[in-house]
Amino acid sequence: MDIVFVTTVVAVLFLVIGVAEPLAARLRLPYSVILAGLGSLIGAAAIFFLQTDLTDALNPVAEAILGLPIRSNVFLYVLLPTLLFQATLGMNLRRMLDDWVPILVLAVVAVVVSTLVVGYALSAVSALSLAACLLIGAIVSTTDPSAVVAIFRSISAPRRLTRIIEGESLLNDAAAIALFGLFMGFVMLGVPDPALGEALAQFPVLIAGGVLTGWIAARLAVWLMALLARHERAELTISVALPYLAYIVAEQSVGASGVIAVVVAGVTVNLTAPGRLPPQVWTNLREVWELLAHWAGALIFILAALLIPRLLEEVRWSDFALIGVVILAAVAARAVILFGLFPVLSLIRLSPVVERPYRVAILWGGLRGAVTLALALAVTESLRVPIEVKRLVGILATGFTLFTLFAQGTTLRWVIGRLGLDRLSPIDQALSNQVIAVALQTVREDVARTVEDYDLTRDIVRSEAKRFAARLDEAVKAAEEEAEILDRERITLGLIALAGAERDAIIEQVQERTVSARLAEQLLSDADRLIEATRSGGRNGYRRASSESVGYGRMFRIAARLHNRVRISRPLARMMADRFEILLSQGLILRDLDGFIDGRIRRIHGRRVADLLHELLARRVEALETALEGLRLQYPGYAEELERRFIRRTALRLEEREYGSMREDGLIGPELYLALTQDIARRRSEAEQRPKLDLALQRAELVQQFPLFAGLDPTALKRLTRALSTRYADAGEIIIRKDSAPRSVFFIASGAVEVESAGQIWRLGRGEMFGQMAILMQKPRRTEVKAIAPSTLLVLNEIRFRKLLQRSEALQGAVRASAARRGISADALLAEVAKAG
């Protein structure tokens, strides 16, 4: 075919893509529906002009359209990896990990259920083999929830719900395509009724191979990109190559799922690249991928839609009944998950509560699209698939896709409106009127000052002021007539606004390079958790989320266990260093929020609410400072280095801002400005290198400051440091259990523990010890010790403790005090130690 015609057709398709988005916005329809409609019209028109006798003038164009090299491999190897890879880069994966259960249920469990339900329903009413029916079930299980996500965003639906649906879109295609490859193999081998257990047993193998391939490919790519840190275009180019190589290696060499490999590669890059690449490079990389994915997504839809008339050429009346079976079975399978399994997950607190109207919207918004058509096309192209199977796969997949796009897609916004999801709640409506009244009062003051500065005509000013005053009066009247908002609701709204201001401050800090891009995602995730917890739980939700942000999470506890039990310290050291930096950044951000409360929230919600928010913020700052002080006590030298690093980065930011002002004022030329900014970039690169946290070295500094070890000579102190080991205990963790054999003594470096013995309870804090009495009395422990705060403990075994006790008067005094508290005479015990020594 003439390359000129092909190039012209592709250019015209890009014009169609450019027009489709504003057309979708104008018609208030999902973008995918418009693309599918335009593509179908173009394909049908091409067939019409080739078959009609009206004119032959458009035959070359029609032949070029129908002759485009549209094969399933174009979708699966060229366009699909782009979409999947960009989706992983654009998602907040840390927040998705909070909802991994509902995401996996929708993306994997729902796909398997849908495949089985559709497959067995078709098998019962058609002459197709079970393998072919299950193949069709896998094909129609790939959802495209982008339409419902876009509408949910436009109506301010809960962020957590939107995130769950986005997570489904990320993993759904991967799971469905993996199943498709499995059943496609059975159909091509002529296995009519595969053993379902054997078939599903191969599913994890496909996934595991894809996971390993994607992870290795991404780690190598990130390593190579970090080596080329000064060559941004090279880094971007490597990122473009990554998903395609991961897909091809997984499919062709490993025999695993290429889609899973691409998803895992994107996840790995999302989690590791921000800490290895310069912030601007990471930002540019995501922007480049957003554009590539926009083009790929539009092309995959419109090219697939071009095939619709061709796939339906051999449709029969009996096929419509089978299409109806597919529709009913697919909708029923999704309804079982949303209305059967989801409520159960909510009851056992593995999933957020999804209200019934939102579940209906998700059910009706489960559109199918280009991936379904691409998989159907792959079946019709295969020479090893029976002709009747190819015909039915093409017709059923296409018919079902058309139903979801043109029946569900065109009515989705109407359904959401009927469910009442597009209306403000009474509280938000009342707040809206008050916010408008406060904003217009501020605008009136600003406009008055602006009018004075520009010396405008008095008549014009008077007429416009009169119109504005009328609008202001209406807003004030509406606010006064609105039902009174309860203080509890005002506090919730104020806390949501406060958390939003915190999030904006974090973004500003990242842009000014005061906070590293690698940690920005975690800070933003904490701010998002704060907003969502406040929306669902009000003041108590805010308190709970804020305490979790300064606490030790699940991954920290895993790292602590690795350190405590197998002496693998690197993960713990990295997480400790991250915690230091995050707490420092959070402290600076929180101290600036008092001004936001006084300047904004007080004007809308009143003094009483503002004072309560000040109190809540003060408590949060206090908790953060306590956590930070605990780290300073554990690692004093490291804390000082981090604070110096922060000051250097702040100074560089201010210096760069000063040079920018001088450049704008014409005090320095472009050449000098470029030289100065390049020098700042070099020094900033050095300042952003975080010092390494050496847990063993920090332990030595900590031991020197421990009160109980005072008086030891340097040599003895050095031996003691080597003998001590560090143990980390989270709040609630039991350190010593009753009736356990006494082997060690514990010294509290930071945190606090609760001791329970013979019905008595007392608490110990920094600088104190426990476990010594059981060793001295040589009896099984009758005491239970539990951490009541995240604690760092120095642990010394029995033999070393006895030797140390002989030399340290401070330690002997602590033993006497501990024994007196329990009503025990320690002199005899100490005499036995001295005699044994």
Automatic annotation (TrEMBL):
The chain crosses the membrane at residues 6-24, 31-50, 70-89, 101-122, 128-152, 173-191, 203-229, 241-268, 288-308, 320-342, 362-380, 392-416. It is found in: Cell membrane. Its main location: membrane. Keywords: Cell membrane, Coiled coil, Ion transport, Membrane, Sodium, Sodium transport, Transmembrane, Transmembrane helix, Transport. GO terms for biological process: regulation of intracellular pH; sodium ion import across plasma membrane. Residues 462-489 form a coiled coil. The keyword Cell membrane applies. Residues 708-822 form the Cyclic nucleotide-binding domain. InterPro entries: Cation/H_exchanger_CPA1, Cation/H_exchanger_TM, cNMP-bd_dom, cNMP-bd_dom_sf, RmlC-like_jellyroll. PROSITE patterns: CNMP_BINDING_3. The keyword Transport applies. It is a multi-pass membrane protein. One of its GO terms (cellular component) is plasma membrane. One of its GO terms (molecular function) is potassium:proton antiporter activity. This is Sodium/proton antiporter, CPA1 family.
